[in-house]
Amino acid sequence: MTSDVRHIVIAVDGPAAAGKGTLSRRLAEHYGLNHLDTGLTYRATVKTLIDRGLPLDDETVAAETARTLDLSNLDRSVLSAHEIGEAASRVAVMPQVRKALVQAQREFAKTPAGAVLDGRDIGTVVCPDAFIKFYVTASPEVRAKRRFDEITGNGGSADLPTILADIEKRDARDTERADSPLRPASDAHLLDTTEMGIETAFETALRLVDAALEH
Ligand code: C5P
Questions:
Q1: Alpha carbon distance 112, 101 (integer Å)
Q2: Whole-number Å distance between alpha carbons of 112 and 119
Q3: Is 164 domain-assigned?
Q4: Whether the CB of 118 sits within 6 Å of ligand 1
Q5: Is residue 150 situated within a structural domain?
Q6: Statement: residue 153 has pLDDT above 50
Q7: Closest Cα to atom 21, ligand 1: which residue?
């Protein structure tokens, strides 16, 4: 059975640089689904605030910015900077910002072909009834090394200990916030990419989705 006979939502959550973006893109490609990296919605909110010279700590202003975001116009190359991710996790603690972005993300999930959404709270809050859920994780050291390789591979310069410290700070902020903290949904399949690598994680995920589609 293939995805075009029913509308399916695949939820992929996990901490920064665990491999959930790659996994999600490949799942979307394989099953012909739309893909939304919900981290980009938080990043775009903070980038818009910075570009307009607006404060990052005013919830009303940040929520208004989040409400006017155009999801069809999220430029990964502009938003991927490590510092934007760090700043995004600050506005992500604001309930009004989350409310606005979650609403837009749920609309995206309804698109006819079905969708893969990745983030921190997809399986727990955004799409609790998702067809299948994955929680992708890896040790902070492995995630920091991946981020380091990505930055230096693109010709940038980076300091591994600084990246590791940032990742640990971001993990703490994401898991300890009161609204929608990062945690696996009780019915999520856990994929630890510390040892298995992203390719094996993808193959494991394919088997699980195919098995679910059989039912
Ligand atoms: O996944 P990415 O690193 O792009 O996310 C940036 C930040 O946005 C995360 O550290 C997190 O604070 C926030 N985020 C979130 N909920 C999501 C996606 C991202 O709180 N669904």
A1: 20
A2: 21
A3: yes
A4: no
A5: yes
A6: yes
A7: 119
CATH code, 143? 3.40.50.300
Please state, in angstroms and as integers, the Cα–Cα distance from residue 146 to each residue in 141, 143, 150, 190, following that order.
Answer: 9, 5, 6, 20
Beta strands in the chain (DSSP E): 8-13, 34-37, 114-119, 132-137, 189-192
Give the full edge-to-edge strand order of the sheet including 114-119: 34-37, 114-119, 8-13, 132-137, 189-192
Cα of 199 to ligand 1 centre, how many Å? 23
pLDDT value, residue 4: 46
Q: What is the pTM of this model?
A: 0.94
Q: pLDDT tens digit string along 113-138?
A: 899 999 999 999 999 999 999 999 99
How many other C-beta atoms can be found within 10 angstroms of the C-beta atom of residue 15?
A: 20
Decide if 185 is inside a domain: yes
Query: How many domains does the structure of the chain reveal?
Result: 1
Domain assignment present for 215: no
CB-hemisphere CA count at 13 Å for 4?
3
3-state helix, strand, coil in the chain (%, to 5): 60, 10, 30
As given in the structure block, the two tokens for residue 168 are 């640990």
Q: Which atom of ligand 1 is nearest to the CA of 17?
A: 3
For residue 141, the model assigns a pLDDT of 97
Name the amino acid, one letter, at 189. Answer: H
